[in-house]
Structure formats: structure tokens, C-alpha cells
Amino acid sequence: MSALLKLTGVETYIGRYHILQGVDFEVPEGQTTMLLGRNGAGKTTTLRTIMGLWQAKNGTIALAGEPIEKLATPDIAQRGVGYVPESMAVFSDLTVKENLVLAARNGPLDDAQLAWIFGFFPALKKFWLSRAGSLSGGQKQMLSIARAIVEPRKLLLIDEPTKGLAPAIVMSLIECLKEIKRRGATILLVEQNSHAARELGDQVLVMDNGSIVHRGEMAALAADVPLQERLLGLSLEAHQ
Predict the structure, then answer these.
(1) Terminal CA-to-CA distance of the chain, rounded, Å?
(2) Between the CA of residue 188 and those of 15, 98, 122, what are the distances in Å?
(3) Residue 66: how many CB atoms within 10 A of its CB?
């Protein structure tokens, strides 16, 4: 299967700290690749570097064979890359509607796409004209994800979307991400929830100290508790 995204020798510094230390991996087109690792391993830095929010000092990042490591974040987004940060970045002073209008870079909101999003996240329809800052944490996460998928994306970079969410919302989110993949999107997903990782992951990458230390099938890692404990310090179940 061809790689939609490929990182080769990527190194990223934040101030004097050498965070990514030669990251190499591929994300197969049409699949969901999990990016796992202990806290501080470099997972969020990897997503932010791909998105151009932090610049790689060395190495290459290719999207569909084209280098993007020197591009600005808006130009990367224009190439069909969506990003859902862990911080649930929404515009608090704007309404839910206004947040989504801003995210629809290529024209007016599509009614069919909105109806599809509301099917998974009905709270967004209920609070359509409410300020985003008044939403609960779970509702803000729904809005953050909706912003990333309000238009079709080639690649979605998603950072711990289930963190702090109620189980019912987590299940809706899992079904939403499955449907996004069925519609043809490729997903690179940082996630600590073991159920979400098992349900969503096709491939898995494990980071430690700023580099990739394991790559393989998610199902194989999920079945190997000793390997999980060696790579992650704990079993996947303990990360719930």
C-alpha cells in the first residue's frame, strides 16, 4: 500500500531541547496509523512538526510525494491536511456556526456534510448559535473535530481526541473516525485509550525519546502484553 505521508530523518528542536531525533516512518494511504508512546516521547511534537507549527531543523516530510517541511501551516492545510490538537483549539468568542464557517476554507458550509457531522455530534446542532466558550469540554472536542472534517481531508492529524471524554462520547467519536476512514481519509492518531486504539488502529508506531522504536500492525501489539509493557511501560489496558 502506498504511503500518503513519509517522514525521513526529521529532527525538531524547541529552544535548546532536541525533541525529535531522526524520526522515520510512513503512513499508508487509507489507513489509520496509531502513534503511541510514553508521556514526553515526542508524539505531539511530531504532529505539530508535520503541520508546520514547529519547523523541522533537519529531514524531510513528504505528502503524496511532495515535500512540505518548508511550507507554512495554511499552505499545508490547503493541501488537504486537517489537525485536531489536544488543546481543543476553538474560537471561544465565536459561535459553533462561526467556528465551522471559518474552517470551511473552500466555500460555504455543505449542508450534507453538516447533517453527517450532526449525526455523530448532535450537541453541535443544539448549540449551533451558542458561543463555543460556553460548551462543555466534551462538546468543545466535538467542535474541534468537526472543524477538521467540515471539508473532506486527505490526511487527519489527531492528538488524543478521547482524553477526558465520557464513554458515550468516546463511542460516538470512534464511530465517526471509522466513517471518516471509510470515506477515504488517512488518519495519524495519538491516543491513550486502549479501546479506541484497538478499534481504530490498522498500523502502529511507538515513539520513545524522540524516535520510532517499533512499527507494525496494531492488532499484533494489542495481543502482546509483554511487548506493550516493554515499549510503553504499562499494558494498553493500564492506559485507559
Answers:
(1) 31
(2) 26, 27, 25
(3) 9
The helix/strand count (H/E) of the chain reads as 10, 10
How far apart are the C-alpha atoms of 22 and 169, rounded to whole Å?
Answer: 36
Contact 144, 90 (CB under 8 A): yes
Residues facing residue 216 across a β-bridge: 204
Q: Apex CA 178: angle with CA 51 and CA 169, to 5°?
A: 90
161 by DSSP, 3-state: which? coil
User: Has residue 87 got a pLDDT over 90?
Assistant: no
CA dist 168 and 208 (Å) reads 31
Determine how many CB atoms are found less than 10 A away from the CB of residue 52: 21
Cell of 39: 508521556
**Across the chain, where does the E strand assignment appear?**
3-14, 17-28, 32-37, 58-63, 66-67, 81-84, 155-159, 186-190, 203-208, 211-217
Grid cell, residue 30, equals 487509507
- pLDDT grade for 239, boundaries at 50, 70 and 90: low
Q: Which of the four pLDDT bands, split at 50, 70 and 90, describes residue 240?
A: low
User: Can you give the length of the chain in residues?
Assistant: 240
Q: Domains (ranges, CATH) in the chain?
A: 3-239 (3.40.50.300)
Contact 206, 234 (CB under 8 A): no
Task: Using the structure block, give the residue that is written with the C-alpha cell 503511541.
Answer: 36
CA distance 79 to 69: 13
